Amino acid sequence: MEGGRKHNDELAVEISKEIVRRFPREHSDRDPFRVLIKTVLSQRTKDENTARAAERLFKLFDTPEKLMDADIKVVEDLIKPSGMFRQKARRIKEIARKIVEEYGGEVPNDLDELLQLPGVGRKTANIVLHVSFKKPAIAVDTHVHRISNRIGLVRTRTPEETERELMKILPKDLWGPINGSMVEFGRKICKPQNPLCDLCPKSIAEHCVYRSRMKKGDRIEG
């Protein structure tokens, strides 16, 4: 049993490496404050909407001090492309205020401290830790959770369980990159509905649980 688990874990590492290699995502902006705010803006919206909202916002308010003092209505108008703009405007202004008043204007580089910021969950915190501070951190969102289970890397019910399992399986140098790469993989190939299995790289597809069950005609979900 132990030997089988070890084999499965090694296979999961190889598949993850292949996803990272074939679907890289570069981070051109590593400023902790900008990465943090952009990640909050990205919640429940598309990347292009996040990019547009962030660009508009940072033209006027590119520091915690400026954003903290910004008029809420102005902020709402600037970030409208990201959706849920009233809720997000309140949240990012409160984040800015807390960073200024409690952290001297510097985004904390500690997971527990980041989780104290309004609206910041583990995914957001881990993205900041990886992208801005180059710390080993694995950000598990709905994309990573869905794809990891679909292709058979893990068998979990929640993103939190997926995070824990992937941390056990994957070497730390893959923790950071796996989020962005799985997002790209999910957008281009492993879509939530009607995945493009015929376009999936053979090195990934030949081990995919979803594809195997589909060929057998099993009833499958997600």
Q: What would you note in describing this structure?
A:
This protein has 222 residues and is mainly alpha-helical. The protein has two domains: 2-25 and 139-216, Endonuclease Iii, domain 2 (Orthogonal Bundle); 32-133, Hypothetical protein, domain 2 (Endonuclease III, domain 1). The chain contains 13 helices and no strands. Helix 2 (32-41) runs antiparallel to helix 8 (122-133), helix 5 packs across helix 6 and helix 8 packs across helix 11 (172-188). The longest helix is centred in the N-terminal third of the chain and has 21 residues, at 2-22.
Beta-sheet strand percentage?
under 5%
How many individual helices? Answer: 13
Arithmetic mean pLDDT: 91
Low-confidence stretches: none
H/E topology pattern: HHHHHHHHHHHHH
Mind telling me the CATH superfamily name of the largest domain? Helix-hairpin-Helix base-excision DNA repair enzymes (C-terminal)
**Gross morphology:** elongated
Main beta-sheet annotation: none
What topology does this entry show?
Elements: H1 2-22, H2 32-41, H3 47-60, H4 64-69, H5 72-78, H6 85-103, H7 111-114, H8 122-133, H9 142-150, H10 159-169, H11 172-188, H12 202-205, H13 209-216
Helix pairs in contact: 1-11, 2-3, 2-8, 5-6, 8-11
Q: Main traits of this protein?
A:
222 residues; mainly alpha; Endonuclease Iii, domain 2; Endonuclease III, domain 1; 64% helix; elongated
